[in-house]
What we know:
The chain is an all-alpha fold. It has 17 helices and no strands.
Amino acid sequence: MGAPPRPGGALAPFRYPAFRAIWTANLFSNVGSMIQSVAAAWLMTDLTRSHVLVALIQASATIPILLLGVFAGAIADNFDRRRVMLWAQTGMLVVSAVLAALGYAGWLTPHLLLALTLMVGMGTALNGPAWQASVRLQVGREDLPQAIALNSIAFNLARSVGPALGGVLISLWSVSLAFALNAVSYVGMIAVLLAWRPEAPPPQRQPMLGSIRVGLSFCWSSAPIRKVLLRGLCFGLGVAGFQALMPTVVRGMLHGTELDYGLMLGAFGIGSILTALWVSKARRRFGSENVVSAATVAFAMALLSISLAHSLPHAMASAFLGGAGFVSAMTSLNVAMQLRSPEAILGRCLAIYQAVTFGGMALGAWIWGSLADMAGQPVALRTAAAWTAATLALRLIAPMPTREQGRIDSVEEPEAHANVARR
Length: 423
């Protein structure tokens, strides 16, 4: 037998049984979600020719985070996070089952499809802050950055496998089967959460609006966190150009099939996975600012490249580069938030980060989809590339926090933060 992963190593979080179980269940759940995402996006291109509606399907997981994220963060801090995740996962299972049933019956319309995918997105918005805040209960603090990176790998591994499986399923069978498989994929996570009994202090209940105000006040008063939030918003706005328009790029520019769309998303996921394996080491060596800036350049190049693509291999190479840039930036931003947020208000801080970053993606999906309707996909993609490149100016006005700036090293928050959280 090989030696166990050393503390602080890339695979060290797998030493913890709870992390292993949740990571594995989450991987399968993410695969199901990606299969459903591919099926919903492709079905929408069958139901309508509107680039905006197709883009909104792609943004259906991010729009609820923008609208509900801060409330979800307050819920994560005021209630048992494991129970919050259980309710969210169960709700997504039910909605996905309804989506499958309506698909088999042939009753789905563009607006009904959008409404149901938005409801799944509401479950994602509720689940996200509780899930991310619970990572500290699964691993030791020294392994937290690696755990975040491994969770990113699970998501992007699903992004690699799920779209290809989704493309095969909807080309050989139907989108309804893809929706049904996603409903089944939630069962494993629900079973793991029912068995998990973390040792955590009981949450201190506070009025909902007061809880939200405390989280907003802390994030606004923290200069390092303000910079992370601004970087997340601006990067998310540009990222949406790639992700929201990918289905119409495959169908309109490349004249591709469902399988081609799956391969494109698979290439994006593979680029993400390979990058996630070494991005923590790169941050330690070069610093977060250089990693995020390099990721921004890579994503801008990916957007420009895909706007010029006329073949599937060219588009897949662009997607691979985009995946590398995406995971480098998003993982670095997430780690920066986790390490600078007190435990007592961690759920709210992460929810605010998600609301800002994914809200930028939702806004970008609408902007780039509308521009594609008016001027065509290449123009929209090149404009998104120009925006992404322009955000490099943030190196000067909102640089990423340095390694020790604003960092909370102890598990028990500084008294000032604890007092703020209790008021």
